[in-house]
Specification:
The chain is about 35% helix and about 20% strand. The chain is α/β, with parallel strands linked by helices. Strand 3, helix 2 (about 70-80) and strand 4 (about 85-95) form a beta-alpha-beta unit. It is globular. The mean pLDDT is about 95. It binds flavin mononucleotide. Flavin mononucleotide (FMN) binds near residues 11, 14, 59, 63 and 93.
Length: about 150
């Protein structure tokens, strides 16, 4: 699978980071060139040079991004430059105990689409037990990337 994949995670307590690390390792094992990064350290302008972007994001507060992901989320939302060169997929982590379930991931998924990026596979929303949903999401990504190669 000779492709470059950027895996970004937005986390506050580490769950999303663990899944992002697993995602990166599994795609590297398939031959992808993977860049794994905390979204807090990824300036949104770099999306101009990205091609395949996987975003794993939890939700905090009342439907807010994790605190150190706020700048990226705001830039993604406020900027309107085209992201039509990007194929992307979002895994949203949250808890259905909250009214704004998975709101951060849902909003990022909408923002990528609004700016013209193309979904590699559909967003998956994960509740507090997320192993099955995560596996389903990752398998969808693997199939989609194989189809692209
Ligand atoms: C203080 C607090 C606020 C939260 N707010 C929300 C929320 O508004 N919506 C939601 O879907 N999940 C919410 N969650 C659940 C987290 O998103 C969930 O635990 C997630 O797995 C955390 O992932 P992380 O460790 O990668 O940050 C909240 C959790 C805490 C502790």
């Amino acid at each position: 699978m000779p492709c470059q994949v950027t895996v970004l995670y937005a986390t506050a307590s580490g769950n999303t980071e663990q899944l992002a690390v697993f995602t990166a390792e599994s795609l590297r094992a398939l031959g992808a060139d993977v860049r794994l990064q905390n979204i807090a350290d990824y300036p949104a302008e770099q999306l101009a040079r990205a091609s395949i972007v996987l975003v794993l994001a939890s939700t905090w507060g009342e439907g807010a991004p994790p605190p150190d992901a706020e700048a990226f989320c705001a830039a993604l939302h406020e900027d309107s430059s085209s992201l039509a060169h990007i194929r992307y997929a979002v895994l949203a982590l949250g808890s259905s105990a909250y009214a704004e379930f998975c709101a951060c991931g849902r909003r990022m998924d909408e923002d990528f689409a609004r700016r013209g990026a193309i979904r590699l596979s559909p967003r998956v929303d994960c509740d507090t037990k997320y192993k099955a949903e995560f596996t389903q999401w990752l398998e969808g990504i693997q199939s989609a990337l194989k189809a692209l190669a």
